[in-house]
Write a structure and sequence with these properties.
mainly beta
């Protein structure tokens, strides 16, 4: 009988940032979704945000590709519960986002001025200037093909 060594388990993927953003379609309606893990909720807001209301603002110009989330009792967006204490905030897709479905991408915290506000850098595909191709020409960032 001969034996061979068993391979080691694959290396674990690097730890995520605790924030992710995706673009989804539900019944032909485009929705953007910010997901925040439990530990990141505690770090950014000092508590679980499940059930809390938010206002969101999208960056323009030099702030393109950034999203500001503000804990606002009068806000129209509600953080809902997901698995293991994770919360997600669904919102309408805005004009600068791609027209097709996109998988979740990791986000970075740009600023956290208080426990009621956070500014995040969205994945690169959220910026028209970073996507190139048809989308960039749709927004006048590049010239389209001559007809």
């Amino acid at each position: 009988m001969s034996f061979t060594p068993v391979p080691l388990p694959p290396a674990k993927a690097p730890a995520g940032t605790g924030l992710s953003f995706s673009l989804q379609f539900f019944r032909n309606v485009r929705k953007a979704r910010m997901t925040i893990r439990a530990g990141m909720q505690e770090e950014l807001f000092g508590k679980s945000i499940i059930g809390e209301n938010f206002t969101a603002q999208v960056g323009r110009g030099t702030d393109e590709g950034k999203l500001r989330l503000i804990l606002d009792p009068e806000g129209g967006l509600v953080a809902k519960a997901s698995v293991s204490g994770t919360a997600f905030i669904s919102m309408g897709a805005w004009d600068l986002l791609p027209k097709d479905k996109r998988p979740a991408g990791s986000c970075k915290v740009v600023a956290n001025p208080s426990q009621t506000e956070v500014i995040v850098q969205l994945p690169d595909w959220c910026k028209p200037s970073a996507t190139g191709g048809k989308l960039a020409s749709e927004f006048g960032l590049t010239r389209g093909a001559k007809k």
